Amino acid sequence: MKLDSTRTLLVTQADLRSIVEAVGLDALMDQLLHALSDALRRFDGATTEVRKREGFMLDHPRQPGVLEWMPVMQRGHTVTVKMVGYSPLNPEEHTLPTIIATNSLYDVRTGHLLALMDGVFATALRTGAASAVATRCLASPGSTVLGLVGTGAQAVTQLHAISRLFPLEQVLAYDINPEALLSFAGRVGFLDLDVRPATLEQLEAQADIICTATSVAVGAGPVISGRELKPHVHINAVGSDLPGKTELPRALLERSLVVPDYLEQARVEGECQQLAPEKIGPDLVTLMKDPDRYEAWRQRSTVFDSTGHALEDQVVTGLLLEHAERLGLGTPVALETIGGDALDPYSLLRGPESGPARRLERRRAGGA
């Protein structure tokens, strides 16, 4: 099924389920890891333009959220835009995910909306993949123990993605929400890993790799102490996405190689907002283009500052659309008022009889 110039392909939750059933969850994650690694290594700012996240604050008396857009343009081809809502009280108050998103794809030549798809699954998938790609470059190759601080939705894909690249022998899980912690082992049971609840102290002391994926409030961090960590620990800090919202102690950051996914964004709302510019390491693109340069850091403390990169959205959207096309999934709809008389915005409202082709036919027939 080809994307066309007059219709928009809707890829729904049911379509994504069919893709996973056809491809397999492990294979889909492996494909994304490969595609994202390749996109980062090949990234060229002259052909791909990425903008940092912008948006609106969503007021709430207990804990604010945001509604934001994340755009990226592949010059001469398409623009991918994700609209994403972050509402930390969603699970508690509305039984909805903390992150709700839609991904859209536009023709850069015409502005036509080519495709629209669910972004909840895609965001979780690509965020896990980004951490795994960074972890492969920065963590000790012998890492076997993963610690998860926060066992919500994002912890599932963090664990899944990293488990595809490291032979994990044990997973230590911690959450301030006892219900989330209790249900976590069941949610990741498909991985067949040794998942155990742990105290924060146990997790920090024993983990080779740590992922922090929390909804900590602005000014309420850090979520770990950073005092009893292994010398070679690698940390994926996933939860920071607002000014003043951080998960890691500043002292830990200052003694680590800190790699932001997208520097311009991370300095505003990531862990990098705690650091002077000279204390920040290479961004993920730079790391991926020359990983050997930083190989010595695999035996020292490292941090991946993951604020969310629009390039990741472009890659996962493209991958899912490729599968939808191959499997004949998605529904083409005439969403935009296009395809009639381009000079008459009311032509489609009057039906096909009013189109330019029909008028030409009438003139040839001698009609009015």
What attributes characterize this protein structure?
single chain, ornithine cyclodeaminase, domain 1, Rossmann fold, 8-stranded mixed beta sheet, alpha/beta, 368 residues, globular, 7-stranded parallel beta sheet
CATH topology of the largest domain: Rossmann fold
Strand content: 15-25%
- General form: globular
Structural class: alpha/beta
CATH first level of the largest domain: which class? Alpha Beta
Summarize the main sheet: 8 strands, mixed
Helix segment tally? 12
N- to C-terminal distance: 40 Å
What is the residue-averaged pLDDT?
Answer: 93
Helix content: 25-40%
Please state the CA-atom Rg, rounded to the nearest Å: 23 Å
Taking pLDDT < 50 over at least 5 consecutive residues as the criterion, the unreliable ranges are none
SSE order:
EHHEEEEHEEHEHEHEHEEHEHHEHEH
Topology summary:
Blueprint: E1 8-11, H1 13-23, H2 25-42, E2 48-50, E3 54-58, E4 65-74, E5 78-86, H3 90-94, E6 99-107, E7 113-118, H4 120-138, E8 145-149, H5 153-163, E9 170-174, H6 178-187, E10 195-197, H7 200-206, E11 209-212, E12 234-237, H8 250-254, E13 257-260, H9 263-269, H10 284-289, E14 302-305, H11 310-327, E15 331-333, H12 356-364
Q: What would you say this structure looks like, in words?
A:
This protein has twelve helices and 15 strands. Helix 2 (25-42) crosses helix 4 (120-138) and helix 4 (120-138) crosses helix 11 (310-327). By secondary structure, the protein is α/β, with parallel strands linked by helices. Helix 6 links the parallel strand 9 and strand 10. The longest helix has 19 residues, at 120-138. The relative contact order is 0.16. It folds into two domains: 8-122 and 312-347, ornithine cyclodeaminase, domain 1 (2-Layer Sandwich); 128-308, NAD(P)-binding Rossmann-like Domain (Rossmann fold, 3-Layer(aba) Sandwich). The chain has helices spanning 13-23, 25-42, 90-94, 120-138, 153-163, 178-187, 200-206, 250-254, 263-269, 284-289, 310-327, 356-364; strands at 8-11, 48-50, 54-58, 65-74, 78-86, 99-107, 113-118, 145-149, 170-174, 195-197, 209-212, 234-237, 257-260, 302-305, 331-333.
